[in-house]
Write the structure tokens for this entry.
Amino acid sequence: MNLDALYSELTLKTNAKVALIVLDGLGDIATAEQNYLTPLEAAATPNLDALAKNSAQGRLIPAAPGITPGSGPGHLGLFGYDPLEFQVGRGVIEALGLGVELQPGDVCARANFATLDANGIVTDRRAGRIPTETCEKLCALLAAKIKKIGDTQVMIRAGKEHRFVVVFRGKGLEGPLTDADPNREGFAVPVVKPRDPESLKQKKMAELIAAFYQTALPILAQEKPANGFLMRGIAHQPEIPLFEDRYKLKPACLAVYPMYKGLAQLVGMKKIEGPQTIAEQFERYLAEHANYDFFFIHYKYTDKAGEDGDFTAKKKAIEDFDAALPILLQKTPDVIAITGDHSTPVSLKGHSWHPQPVLLHSKVSGSDKLERFTETGANSGSLGVMESKFLMRLMQANARMFDKFGA
Amino acid sequence: MNLDALYSELTLKTNAKVALIVLDGLGDIATAEQNYLTPLEAAATPNLDALAKNSAQGRLIPAAPGITPGSGPGHLGLFGYDPLEFQVGRGVIEALGLGVELQPGDVCARANFATLDANGIVTDRRAGRIPTETCEKLCALLAAKIKKIGDTQVMIRAGKEHRFVVVFRGKGLEGPLTDADPNREGFAVPVVKPRDPESLKQKKMAELIAAFYQTALPILAQEKPANGFLMRGIAHQPEIPLFEDRYKLKPACLAVYPMYKGLAQLVGMKKIEGPQTIAEQFERYLAEHANYDFFFIHYKYTDKAGEDGDFTAKKKAIEDFDAALPILLQKTPDVIAITGDHSTPVSLKGHSWHPQPVLLHSKVSGSDKLERFTETGANSGSLGVMESKFLMRLMQANARMFDKFGA
């Protein structure tokens, strides 16, 4: 039997309030250089410690053993969707990251400004990494001249340096397509093709991309070095079962950065705008307590510090989080999970595959009798080492939302 | 490759004696109210402690993370059958629980006496919870007048209060059907339908249920308040590969309660009747040692105490079990697994999803160097947190029943 169908069949609506708190990139690895302490272990976290005493712990594998996820799969897993089943194109992730309010059916492409020679051969795939301001100027130029192709609306958004995003909104569009990118210099930009040769919608989309090139290239012809561009990850927003339908929990997102708001929006969470700090996010949780059943609260700074390889900053980010935690506990959610979407070890300066520590607290979580919330402690927690996608189901169980299976 | 097929291909017959000992509902959770000790942790268990020193430990997830199983899925998992793949209808479980000796193809329905008004509308789904004696009297009345419908034999067995079971034995019958139960008062009893509209056997079965209603309702017409009845979970005994064929182990069941004998019978175990206490069950194991390879020994009282929310009684049940254990060890089985079918935490007064502690002992189990058998200790055992269905395979491995896979 399909497991999601079984969960669905057993789900009962309750009045429980459930909070998923994601410290982005929380997990880390212990190294000799840092005296075998992770930032979480080195940080002073009196409030997390108090919670740990009455919680279950374990570790989460975001997608599969050894796989380092981006923010997309990392969060989809935490939202309870198998990231291998529900794949989100990079164009969609980039568009979400730039704050584009996507609609179902929108096709997104990740694009780079590039340098072409007189014969259309790519001589620099990143156009010398033009400054962000130049990128913004060029995007504004394109956006001013290309608002529609036929009936299809075209939206162009600048990213950092040479990066931008193109969103196509219209009827009967679909991805994925092959890339308009030779992936190395010395070759022409290939014409995109449907990934599924039978799909008429993909065929239409491929024609739109061709038309977009035909219109846009002349506009850039006199630019130096950005007289061309590449497009990749061309795909539509995938159909993902709505969070509220799937879990019978009315969800709200309290995130500061557009990418995470976008990912929450992808599964139908309501975005609550305004709060800029974790204290403000928790305050807003208190204010919105009655209006939702599920709160996704995202904290970015652990990941940032990990990406920078800054141990002290990551430790400080955790301590800042801990200091704000009592605000949340003024109206303690019935179920609290605290974890990361992936590890971002300081020593790696980037995302990694190492499992996340997770803390799960409720009146019925039981206690693993751990004095603190740490990677090493979580290894001996009762949740074991499991895939992230099961966390939502354990949260539902702790919210007493599942009927008994079988007699 | 199908994993069961691989196990099967690698299985060798040995002379090992294997014992699966189920303390029903053994697992519990540590709470502040009980000083962070589970009943297993609070109990004095010198004999389990001695065994633990030379055992591997871990935790078992009965069906899937967060799922609270009934006894059926709980035991099927321990018998090595995926409870999501092999689902047993509630009618079958209830019939087994009432001690009906089911045969392959029997279709069972769980039934309730109910009160109907003059228009056939259900006014009380439980007929005022009539006393068990009334239920027995009405079942006898129905049984006396309805022995067969066409070629199909009909068996009616009273349960507790308003509950009873109807078993249909004949050729070409099959479930599952929809319920003859509006699930709330104020509605008529719906006509049952095949779950699979294409199944002729289900169609035949639905017609039999209709005929049963037609015959039975007039018999009850003058009764008050039980002038009607509802039927649910109408399904046949599923086809389950026989235990002995699957594991090359000749199995015996030493259980006291009918439900567990029934579940053992479902997979073809031989029921050994007679023993009423765990000491008597172990004594009987000694007597039957030469006659079987595999002994399923079921102990009910841990679950009962958990359901009653009685910490002291659960602790005492564990201590009583421990005191009897030396009898078993007079002829120590080559492989011993001690676990539960699910958790029944005292603080929840019912089954739960929390993983079971499991202890696995053999000459080749290795030692996890744990001084005791407890939930918390088991968290850091070498078996990890795994699905129950793999325990049988680990028992086979410890019985040296698997050839090497690959060169």
Summary: Chain A touches chain B through 32 residues (CB under 8 Å). Residues 134 and 199 of chain A are 37 Å apart (CA to CA).
